[in-house]
Specification:
Strand content: 25-35%
Shape: elongated
Strand order of the largest sheet: 5-4-7-8-9
CATH superfamily of one domain: minor pseudopilin epsh domain
Order of helices and strands: HHHEEEEEEEEE
Largest sheet: 5 strands, antiparallel
Helix content: 25-40%
């Protein structure tokens, strides 16, 4: 039997209230569930985590990239000179912020980008060179002495230290001798 209302004596028959499809949707859509809020906050935080580092870069990315490029080239020249028993000449022009290397069969030149500049180059036999041009030979036994290259962009500096015995390089943030 279905009840249709309150049948107590003295009361008029009142229909039972029921939820219509529109009533139930409006009561549910009044707020967000906790799961929905957590998902939205997660999406916003992931987006911020991906975007914010690029806004805070201040040019360090270009400086780090140029440091790695020079570091990789120094290792390449060392390995190629030893492997092919050829001499490679590395030329760095500190005034124009360009550098290149050359051998019998190969020649490449590069320019520092995005405001990155050579600060100085330290070679024990020459000393600290901060202007002009430096030419270093990578012979069949590698270069004869270590090389330290300092790059800068605004107030930031990076140091590239080349070990002439092992042919390996290290890139450091900041100025090191």
């Amino acid at each position: 039997m279905i009840e249709t209302g309150d049948r107590t004596p003295g009361n008029v028959l009142k229909p039972l209230q029921h939820c219509s499809p529109t009533n139930s949707l409006s009561s549910i859509s009044r707020g967000f569930t906790l799961v929905e809020l957590i998902i939205v906050i997660f999406i916003i935080s992931m987006t911020a985590a991906l975007i914010m580092p690029s806004l805070w870069d201040r040019g360090e990315r270009a400086l780090k990239q140029e440091s790695r490029h020079i570091s990789n080239t120094l290792r390449y020249l060392y390995d190629e000179a030893l492997g092919k028993k050829q001499t490679y000449n590395l030329k760095i022009n500190l005034d124009k912020n360009v550098w290149s290397y050359k051998s019998k069969n190969e020649s490449r030149s590069f320019e520092l980008k995005d405001g990155v500049m050579f600060k100085d180059i330290i070679i024990p036999s020459i000393g600290d060179v901060s202007f002009g041009e430096v030419i270093m030979a990578f012979g069949p036994l590698g270069p004869e002495e270590p090389i330290i290259v300092h790059l800068m962009k605004k107030e930031m500096e990076y140091t590239i230290i080349f070990n002439h015995i092992s042919g390996r390089t290290k890139v450091y943030e900041g100025y090191r001798k």
